[in-house]
Amino acid sequence: MHFEKELKGWGNRQENKPIWVVAPGRINLIGEHTDYNNGFVLPAAIDKSVFFLVQLRDDKNCNIEAKDIDAHLSFSIEDDLKPSLNNWENYFLGVLHFLKKKGNIKQGFNVIFESNIPIGAGMSSSAALSCGFGMALNEAFSLSLKKTQIAEIAQLAEHHFVGVKCGIMDQYACMFGIENHALKLDCRTLKYQPQEIKLGEYKLVLIDSKVKHELTSTEYNKRREECDRAVSILKNYDESIKTLRDVTQNHILNFGKHLDRVAYMRCKYVIMENERVERASQALISNNLKLFGKLLDQSHKGLADYFEVSCDELNFLVNVSKESGQVLGSRMMGGGFGGCTINIIEGSNCSVIVSTILNSYKKKFGINAQSYFVEIKDGCKVLDYN
Ligand code: GLA
User: Fold this and answer.
1) Is 370 within the bounds of a domain?
2) Is any atom of ligand 1 closer than 6 Å to the C-beta of 169?
3) Which range marks the domain in which residue 26 is found?
4) CA 124 to ligand 1 centroid distance, Å
5) Nearest-atom index, ligand 1, CA of 28
């Protein structure tokens, strides 16, 4: 991506050197809806990113230009920032709002950004927007914030400006991603272990269902509440339970009868999904891709039947993949109710398998799904602009 035209317009003053930041989207191999339950996840940054160019100004004006959608946002750095009705603006307003609490931000700036992360596909273009913008301002204003602090600010922006009570997985994958590695992240301690992804002749393929059911963020926030409800009931029987991460199969055996149906199912899913992340991570270490694939399949079943965040389109894509016999594992990825499936597909015949899946999907739903062959890349970076 190049912003030569804009750069000329901005002038090239030495003291206001433009800053160039690239922030990737992410995949999640396994560990879905476990992050906000303080559990484990296994995400990775990918080769699709948002690109930002940021330059400080000598006045108080802030201009943000979204090149892809030809939209523009202007305000003064002294404004009291509030959420906007234009959703994309909230990532910027939110990040700036929380950054202003951390550092000395008194000057205006110009930002221009564009992205090749498909929107609404579940590759977390939103975390890329907020983390990348946070990183760019951190650099431009020499705030010296740690990456962990920027990730937390990005999450706060989502909670309070965008209105989604997301976990921390997407922001960590975007900030800390490592080429050819997934991050086994413990969402309680926020410590992660990089895990090399060696797929041999297999390929990682995302299939975007191209549907995004309306209730996505409402249902997401509802799942969080349901998990919290389960915790508030179970901690009456064992006060060491602080989050669903602390709940074991034994707790369910002994105290499950006190839970309502929904809380019970959410608990079961989270316990099993956390166990699957551990087993999947071991399977990767021992190069047991078959087992890894099986765990992906089980994860999908859990998400569909126990956590109830899948939909007909995603279930269909997963089933058709499995019918091919050449897909090691397939599951919905991300928050759910649409977006992508993630698949591990035999490499030599990959294109044929993918087009069969796309054709069946088109026949069933009349929708052109889209496939993406993804590579695992580094996380968010400030680049030299040449
Ligand atoms: C979204 C959220 C994440 C995570 C996933 C589900 O991507 O942003 O924090 O909860 O859904 O695993």
Assistant:
1) no
2) yes
3) 4-196+377-383
4) 9
5) 12
Instruction: Provide the residue type at 84 as one letter.
Output: S
Q: What average pLDDT score do residues 21-35 get?
A: 98
- DSSP-assigned letters across all residues of 325-338: S-EEEEEE-SS-SE
Q: CATH no. for residue 91? A: 3.30.230.10
Ligand 1 proximity of 273 Cβ (cutoff 6 Å) = no
Mean pLDDT of the chain: 95
Domain-located, residue 112: yes
Which of 28, 117, 170 is the pocket-test mutation for ligand 1 (most atoms within 8 Å of CB)? Answer: 170
Listed residue (281, 279, 262) closest to 222, CA to CA: 262
Residue 23: pLDDT above 60?
Answer: yes
For residue 7, the model assigns a pLDDT of: 64
DSSP string, 60-72: SEEEEEETTTTEE
What CA–CA distance (Å, rounded) separates 77 from 70? Answer: 22
pLDDT band, very low/low/confident/very high, at 126 (cuts 50, 70, 90): very high
The domain tally of the chain equals: 1
Our answer on whether the CB atom of 25 is closer than 6 Å to any ligand 1 atom is no
Asked whether the CA dihedral 179, 184, 190, 191 is positive or negative, the reply is negative
CA R_g for the chain: 21
Q: What is the pLDDT of residue 218?
A: 86
What share of the chain in percent tops pLDDT 70?
95
316 within a domain of the structure (yes/no): no
Q: Which residues does 316 contact at the CB level (< 8 Å), separation at least 6?
A: 360, 361, 364, 365
Residue 317 lies in a domain: no
Residues 6+ apart with CB under 8 A from 380: 21, 22, 23, 24, 45, 128, 131, 132, 135, 147, 174, 175, 177
Q: Which residues are catalytic?
A: 170
d(Cα 210, Cα 163) in Å, to the nearest integer? 23
Instruction: Provide the token pair at 287.
Output: 């190069």
Q: What is the pLDDT of residue 4?
A: 64
Distance 336 CA to ligand 1 centre (A): 9
With a cut of 60, say whether residue 157 has pLDDT above it: yes
